[in-house]
Structure formats: structure tokens, C-alpha cells
């Protein structure tokens, strides 16, 4: 199933506002489920929803900053602000994992009976359905908008849904079998699972801040476009790419005959730039013109010791 065009065009800010609202609702539902049942597994699920709320609010702020136009202090724009959102969300997940792990170990050492599981589990299922529906929408929209902040929040919501499924199954088994130790064991497993997700988000954030190259399929599209302009008198080299939030950048050298006029060379370069930007949405191309018999030296010099 694919998203309708209108759904794909939903702005990241709109979806993140929905995420804040859904997180507030699920927090209420999950803490009520914990209060009714006394299940530390359900408590761990509720604590993760608090992280959802804080992360969605921070992501919304970063997306707004990322959309600010370039200025004198930030001539390339503010697009990298979204990476801070993913990093913050990853750190928040780690903190939540540590808290859940502590509750789980404490309850494992002193198991307690569970109460009113029926209504508690129903509340948990309802909150998970809300998170699942929103996560599905956000994943597809994140791809459309190339927003790592939206993707980070979506991945967290998906992890939250799977966490809730595991908690519901574990708590149900604990009630059916009478093995009360299952409840804290489920909480500990939840902590390990979301800790893994938190580490992944922090890594993605650091990768973005270090100017990671574009995806292989995008680089292949760039190479395909440049191949359309190659002939014995024109060649390209020193092609490098990077990502900055939703923006994509490519820098390259374009060699052509030295006797060509500046106007002719500029016209060809303009055609190449337009073709690249049409082939790859959000791409900004910087092309340096060089005579065919001139090679540029671009290797970085090592810093002095």
C-alpha cells in the first residue's frame, strides 16, 4: 500500500505536532494501565512514551530551525539542525532504557502480583494502535521529505510499538502462568531493545554531522546524468558529494577546450547543473571549469604535528 499524494505532502512540522499530541495521549493511557495493574512491564512502556513526547517536541523545534533561510553567519543554511534532533532522541532513549532497567531489576528481586490486567492491557493496545498508525505515516513522509528528524521520531515510534507488543505478550503470560518474574524480565528486555535503537540514532546523527556522502543510488543517478554530457572534448573528475539535512550537494570539476569562450563554457555548465538538479531533488551542484590540459590538486594537506 502506498500513501496518497496529499498524505505524502504533509509537512514534517504537521506530523511532529501530531506526534506530540499522540505522545501526550499515550502517556495518559499507559500510566493509567500501569496504575491499575502494578506491572513494571507496563511502567517501562509508559516511560518510553515520555521520551516520545520530549523527543517529538525537540524534533519539531529543530525542523523549524532547519527551515530558516541562509544568513550571513550560516551561508549554507541551517539544515543540519535536524541531526541534533536525532542525536537528542537517541540520548533520551538511552536515559529511558537505564531507568527501565533499574525498575526491572528491582522488581525481579521482589516480584509483586498483577491486578486488573484486562483493562490495563486494553489501554496499552489502544495506545499502541495510535503510535503504529502515526509511525506508518511518518516513515513514508520522512522518505518523501528526506527529513532525518522525522525519520528518527518514526523509528522511535516503531520501536515503541514493538515494545508494547512484547510487554502485552509478556504480561499476559505472567498472568496466565503465575510466573511473576516474567513481568520484570519483559521490562529488562524492553530496556535492551530501546537502548539498541538509541545507539543507532546517535550514530546516524554523528554520521550526518560529519558530512556523509550521498546514498549509492543517488550517486549512480549523478554519474548517469554526467555521462550524458561526456564526449572527447568534455570530461568530469573530482566528483564529491555530501548530505546536510534535506539538502544534497555535489562538487566536481568540468574540463573543456581552453579555446572555448567563457560564455560558451558557462552555457554548457549551466546545462549540466540544471540536469543534475532535475535528476536529483534537493541537489545543489557546484562545478569548477578547467581547461582540458589542466589538473587540479585537491588532496588535503595534513595538519602539522
Element pattern in H and E? HHHHHHHHEEHE
Kindly report the average pLDDT value.
Answer: 77
CATH architecture label name of the largest domain: Up-down Bundle
CATH superfamily grouping of the largest domain: Cation efflux protein transmembrane domain
User: How many E-type strands?
Assistant: 3
CATH topology of the largest domain: Alpha-lytic protease prodomain-like
Question: Can you offer a commentary on this structure?
Answer:
This protein is mostly helical and 305 residues long. It has two domains: 5-209, Alpha-lytic protease prodomain-like, CATH 1.20.1510; 216-291, Alpha-Beta Plaits, CATH 3.30.70.1350. It is 67% helix and 10% strand. The protein is built from nine helices and three strands. Strand 1 and strand 2 (247-256) form a beta hairpin. It is elongated, with a radius of gyration of 25 Å. The model is unreliable at 1-8 (pLDDT under 50).
Jot down its keywords:
disordered N terminus; 9 helices; Alpha-Beta Plaits; 2 domains; mainly alpha; 10% strand; 305 residues; three-stranded mixed β-sheet; Alpha-lytic protease prodomain-like
Amino acid at each position: 500500500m502506498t500513501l496518497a499524494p496529499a498524505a505524502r505532502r504533509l509537512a514534517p512540522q504537521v506530523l511532529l505536532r501530531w506526534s506530540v499530541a499522540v505522545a501526550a495521549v499515550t502517556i495518559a493511557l499507559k500510566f493509567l494501565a500501569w496504575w491499575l495493574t502494578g506491572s513494571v512491564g507496563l511502567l517501562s512502556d509508559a516511560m518510553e512514551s515520555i521520551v516520545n513526547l520530549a523527543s517529538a517536541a525537540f524534533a519539531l523545534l529543530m525542523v523549524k530551525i532547519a527551515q530558516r533561510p541562509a544568513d550571513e553567519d550560516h551561508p549554507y543554511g541551517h539544515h543540519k539542525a535536524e541531526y541534533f534532533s536525532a542525536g537528542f532522541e537517541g540520548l533520551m532513549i538511552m536515559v529511558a532504557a537505564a531507568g527501565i532497567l533499574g525498575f526491572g531489576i528491582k522488581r525481579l528481586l521482589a516480584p509483586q502480583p498483577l491486578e486488573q490486567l484486562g483493562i490495563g492491557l486494553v489501554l496499552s493496545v489502544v495506545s499502541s494502535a495510535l503510535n503504529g498508525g502515526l509511525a506508518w505515516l511518518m516513515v513514508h513522509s520522512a522518505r518523501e521529505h528526506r527529513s532525518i528528524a522525522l525519520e528518527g521520531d518514526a523509528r522511535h515510534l516503531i520501536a515503541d510499538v514493538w515494545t508494547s507488543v512484547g510487554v502485552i505478550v509478556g504480561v499476559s503470560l505472567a498472568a496466565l502462568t503465575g510466573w511473576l518474574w516474567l513481568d520484570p524480565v519483559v521490562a529488562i528486555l524492553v530496556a535492551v531493545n530501546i537502548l539498541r535503537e538509541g545507539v543507532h540514532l546517535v550514530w546516524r546523527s554523528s554520521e550526518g554531522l560529519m558530512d556523509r556522502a550521498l546514498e549509492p543510488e543517488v550517486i549512480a543517478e549523478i554519474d548517469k546524468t554526467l555521462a550524458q554530457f561526456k564526449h572527447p572534448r568534455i570530461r568530469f573528475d573530482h566528483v564529491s558529494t555530501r548530505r546536510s539535512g534535506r539538502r544534497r550537494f555535489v562538487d566536481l570539476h568540468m574540463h573543456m577546450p581552453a579555446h572555448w569562450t567563457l560564455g560558451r563554457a558557462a552555457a554548457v555548465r549551466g546545462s549540466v547543473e540544471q540536469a543534475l538538479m532535475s535528476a536529483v531533488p534537493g541537489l545543489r551542484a557546484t562545478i569548477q571549469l578547467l581547461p582540458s590540459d589542466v589538473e587540479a590538486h585537491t588532496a588535503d594537506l595534513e595538519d602539522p604535528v
